[in-house]
Amino acid sequence: MSTTTPEASAPVAPSDGVGTNRWYLSAAPITRALIHLCVPMAAAMIVSAVYNVINSGFIGSLHDTALLAAVTFGAPILALVMAVGGVFGVGGGALVSRLLGAAENDPGKAGQIKHVSSFAVWGSVIVGAVLGGLGLVFLDPLVALLGATPAAVPATTAFVGVMLAFVPVLAAAFCLEQLVRAEGAARQVMIGLVASTVANLLFDVLFILVLPWGVAGAALAIGLSNFVTIVYFATWLHRHSEHMSLAPRWFTLSPAVLKPVFGVGVGELLQAGFLIVTSLVLNNLAAAYGDGPLAAMGVAVRLAQVPEFLVMGITLGVLPLLAYSFGKGDRARLTAALRGSAIAVGAITLVSATVLFVLRDQVFSAFVADPSVLTIGATILTAQLVAMIANGFTGLITSLFQATGRAGAATVMSATQGILFIPVVILGNLWFGLPGIIWALTVTEAAVLLVGLVLWLASRRAIDRGLDEGSAQRAEEVLEAA
Fold first, then answer.
1. Distance in angstroms (rounded) separating the CA atoms of residues 312 and 322
2. Stretch 144-156: mean pLDDT, rounded?
3. What is the spatial distance between Cα 220 and Cα 213, in angstroms, rounded to a whole number?
4. Does 342 score more than 90 pLDDT?
5. pLDDT in the model for residue 270
6. Which of 127, 137, 184, 98 shows the shortest CA–CA distance to 467?
7. Do residues 92 and 119 touch, judged by C-beta distance below 8 A?
8. I need a surface site. Which of 101, 142, 420, 464 has the fewest CB within 10 A?
9. CA pair distance 446, 387, nearest whole angstrom
10. Other residues' Cβ atoms within 10 Å of the Cβ of residue 141
């Protein structure tokens, strides 16, 4: 294997857009590759986070705490959508990037990509339609299960009902985002997400401020804006992707596609499933303290999402680079990408957490006027920021496992949070009351990070073997060419 670093051996970038995206995955200097892949993703995530804050302002302008609480109660439904889209999108996207890297040594690997992309998109649509339909049939019991208080039941029913109708759209949009990202097309992902956010804001103005549709209007805006995302991503893939296809004729149930896609995707499903369960437990426990704490949680979570989404831009943006390098067998590039992204995550979490902590009272007061809610919200925001630091590194470790096909480790990472959170939040409530609920996530995230570090150390030998296999195959190709 070559001993030169990616920085020293990188060729000049090609001039065409698709070739440039591939160059960033394959040969660009690591710093340039990380900027290309992560900065657009981080920008898009920040725009989405800012939108969530503005959306809370739209709903808050109606001066009804029950409406803000309804959005908090409906959060598990969004987790359901992420679960469906993540199973097919994250699993499919990671496999596509690995196949693109492996195709540098074996061009025949590229032929599998159209089957992966078609299966991922149509699988997310079909499963999303089934789950959304079942949710609508059992809407009333579902709202009760979500823990909605009597005052928030009507608004929660309206919000959840509209969201369920759009589950296939939301799942497909999330899946397509992962597939475009798998090509290294981070700028195109950013464009699609920003366009969706702008559309969402316009729809919010129409459905919430002009038409008095409240949280139902907010949910409708989310659904329609994601349809805009689907149109953009599908059009881009059709026109620019060399190997991917969304045509139903390439849909397959071959084990060669299902096993690696679900192997990684099941971790996303478990993570979202546990998130739903933990949200239900959290909502039901917090509901005993009234709508004020629930509303404060909703706003605090959205404020913490601004730096959290920035970190997610790094951890998600680097995944295709890690997967491509692993599939290619490029150990130096994989190590450099992991090191660079870890430094970026550490810098972002520490700086942003410090700034928001210092300004927590001023920032939170811009959204809530009730002094009691303001006090609780500042505490929740502090807990969220501490948890964010641990979660940033946890996300990076999970991306490494997904990129390298370490399905078992990725699944353990996803399941551990849910398994730990439930007893921690229940015991925290029994022993400390509301503060115990607020800090339960922080304690859990720290524990999950420790588990991730142990799994990473245990998986290093297996990852090295995968890299060696890719390097050996590449060496054989070089010898044959000579």
1. 15
2. 75
3. 9
4. yes
5. 74
6. 98
7. yes
8. 464
9. 7
10. 9
The full DSSP string for 120-166 is HHHHHHHHHHHHHHHHHHTHHHHHHHTT--GGGHHHHHHHHHHHHHT
Q: DSSP state, 105?
A: T
Query: Which residue is it, tokens 């096993």?
Result: 259
* Per-residue pLDDT at 9: 39
Sequence length of the chain is: 482
Percent of the chain with pLDDT over 90: 10
d(CA 42, CA 352): 14
DSSP secondary structure letter of residue 359: T
Domain boundaries, the chain: 27-481
Query: Percent of the chain at pLDDT above 70?
Result: 80
pLDDT of residue 343: 92
- Backbone φ/ψ region at 279: left (φ over 0), alpha (ψ -120 to 50), beta: alpha
Higher confidence at residue 272 or residue 35?
35
DSSP state of 64: -
What DSSP line would sit under 239-263, residue for residue?
HH-SS----GGG----HHHHHHHHH
Tokens of 351: 């700086």
Only one residue has tokens 């009272």, namely: 361
Over its C-alpha atoms, the chain yields an Rg (Å, rounded) of 22
3-class secondary structure, 26: helix
C-alpha distances out from residue 44 to 18, 195, 208, 335, Å: 20, 10, 24, 26
In terms of Cα–Cα distance, which of 210, 207, 127 is closest to 169? 127
C-alpha torsion 62→68→70→76, nearest 10: 140
